[in-house]
Fold GLPGLI family protein.
Amino acid sequence: MQLFGQAYKVSYQRTYNDKALPNDDPLTVFTSKEQTVITSEKATQSLAPYPFETFFVDRSHPSHYYRLTRFSADKDLATLDTTILSRNTLTLTEETKRILGYLCKKAITSVNSNSIEIWYTNALSVKGAPTELGQNLGLVLEYVRNGNSKITATEVKKIDHIPNHVTLRKFSKLVDALTYQDEVWKSRFIRIPIFQNEQINFSEKVTSDSILRFASGTVIVKKVKVPELKTGSQAFVQLIERSNGDAYDRTGSVFMIAEDQAQSFLDGMKNGMNTLPMYSNGDGENYPGMVRTAGYSPIYELMRFFTPFGVSHFNDRLTLKDKTWQDAALYRQDVSEFLSVMSGKEIYIGTYIGNYDKGGHRVSLELTIHPGSSKMEYPQVLSIFNSTNVMEMGGQTYARFFSQEKGLEVSFELDKDAHDVQLRYITTGHGGWGEGDEFVPKENSIYLDEKLTFQFTPWRTDCGSYRLYNPVSGNFQNGLSSSDLSRSNWCPGTITPPNYINLGNLKAGKHTIRVHIPQGEPEGSSFSFWNVSGALLYR
């Protein structure tokens, strides 16, 4: 229905520090005595990329604020909010200035600790604003946040009527605000569910379904399809973990199978770990599938995490004043550097939690990909080493080889010159009881072609921050909990973030990386070991 009478089209420009935002789609407000429509210039011309949102104020019911999102030409969703226009209290001032020749007054408020100025005029017979704030004051010609972010009217144009294709219409269906916001939010990025409340446990009977299960059920793997992605995208893995019977802190890893060579880690999972290339440095042991060779690539480690002591399942075992145990551990990490080996491909992603418990753990895992301008996009990624024995219950031994001076030494070959080379390095120390490498700081040294490149001591002193995730952590007479204790780069309930080690530019040909760590001696039946993973990122 067309509404005739006095109507206006107001065009706005967004600026930051008085500079116009690049590639901005100017805001457009249509307003009359009957309604106000907040849209954009491209949306009015059907040129806005999906999804895009339009807002409506029904002036016959001034508190009725409709939100409509169009997901495609034939799909949209709408909700009605009757409280949004009254949520913020506006303070009117006597300060005035002119905008486009109209005398404007200033109102002020605060939103989420941001100071807001609203400049409005009553010189016209209509009300409206480019945001929900000030809709009923008059016609808002400028909105200022924190003094530097502005939405300013550039033109006020009188029109015969609000165009029929943008005017408020009757909605066949309205959803509640929470449902609306959730669907709109999820439409703005790619969401790839991988596992949903899947069990990771130790069991002789491993069920077979769309999820591959290995090492007596302690490793789960699934093939997922990643669409072609735009340059600059950002990717995150998110894992939610709950104990399903295992009370201990365990090493966990979210990984992706590297498939750039003839043989992959998945081949060893299916055919036996002894079918993969072995690493040996003279300590008398052979370590399958941990280092890159000509023809074989180890797994990419996307995220290393550590389960807390029994979160969720054991929350009722210890009741203390002023402590409310968390229901789950949530881990979320940026993995944008791996998008070049994901985009447009079917990939295998897996999760490992080392445990010997029949109940084990429950996990939910998803990959989300967001449009943006990531600084971590590398066109080339090579998996070099990964000593985390994710197939522990399938024949892959603990990485104890740092007892030898040689430590971990891997050769790799570049088929062309590489620029801005980074070693994405994750390291955590384990074992040995009180004097073992889990609780004793040890220096990690990285050598490139026999030259010391990077040296640091990985250590976490913030473990006490995660006490509420650890309901059955051991408690000592001195008032400390086991989960409070500082450790070699990890805490129960945390992620261990990677180090990005700058290796500069490398010439085509063969190179060698060596990792040296002064591994501690065994204590009786207990021994120390180090889980280290490394991937090369380069241009």
